[in-house]
Design a protein that fits this description.
two-stranded antiparallel sheet; 34% strand; alpha+beta; 216 residues; 5 helices
Length: 216
């Protein structure tokens, strides 16, 4: 059996400063989801429609180059992260602007708010590919942003339950898959440098069934 081809997906890690700690928004997937009953960041598959809408600002050129040699593909990962976060949490990383052409109901809804994605407020975290042994696999990119850059009210579609902000370290004790835990640990490392841009970014994957990590 050949392993399943990983589907492009992206997640948006939403952070908040509260008093003297940094908190992260976590939610619980339903029991029938791919990562059933696990706590995750908002995210999901990149749709073909994610390439259509316009954004009010562009991703940092260094992030674009890191994700793909095709700038349109890099942008689609970022746009998908914003759309999924809006669907699953009710929070939108947007600014006043015209989306132009859209291809699905979520983008139509965002257009009706006269907002468009504000990509310059996104920071890159890393890249992960889930194991070849799984029936459904993801080629996932992780971004983060700050909740004060977003609008909307915490709620979303109900795909994620138990949505709440927790300190980064408290979040680590939730039931979660290894990829989520790894990216959360990466955010703890970033916090120690006050979220300065790091010199290298992580890749998390599997080789011969064993976890494999590298920084480039």
């Amino acid at each position: 059996n050949n392993p399943a081809k990983p589907k492009d997906s992206s997640s948006l890690i939403i952070l908040k400063r509260r008093r003297n700690e940094v908190q992260v928004l976590m939610g619980k997937r339903g029991k029938n989801a791919v990562f059933g009953n696990a706590y995750v960041f908002a995210g999901g598959k990149v749709d073909s429609e994610d390439s259509l809408p316009r954004s009010v600002s562009e991703l940092d050129p260094n992030i674009i180059k890191r994700i793909s040699s095709d700038p349109l593909k890099s942008k689609a990962f970022a746009m998908a992260a914003i759309r999924e976060a809006y669907e699953e949490t009710g929070l939108l990383l947007g600014a006043p602007g015209d989306l132009g052409e859209t291809g699905n109901s979520t983008w139509d809804e965002i257009r009706s708010l006269n907002l468009a994605p504000n990509l310059e407020k996104m920071h890159y975290v890393g890249h992960a590919i889930t194991p070849a042994s799984k029936a459904v696999r993801f080629n996932a990119r992780f971004f983060y942003t700050w909740v004060h850059e977003m609008s909307g009210k915490l709620g979303g579609s109900g795909e994620l339950s138990d949505l709440a902000f927790l300190s980064l370290r408290d979040a680590l004790s939730l039931p979660m898959v290894d990829v989520t835990k790894f990216m959360l640990e990466e955010m703890i490392r970033r916090e120690q440098t006050d979220f300065a841009s790091p010199p290298t970014y992580p890749f998390f994957g599997y080789r011969k069934g064993r976890q494999y990590q590298r920084y480039t």
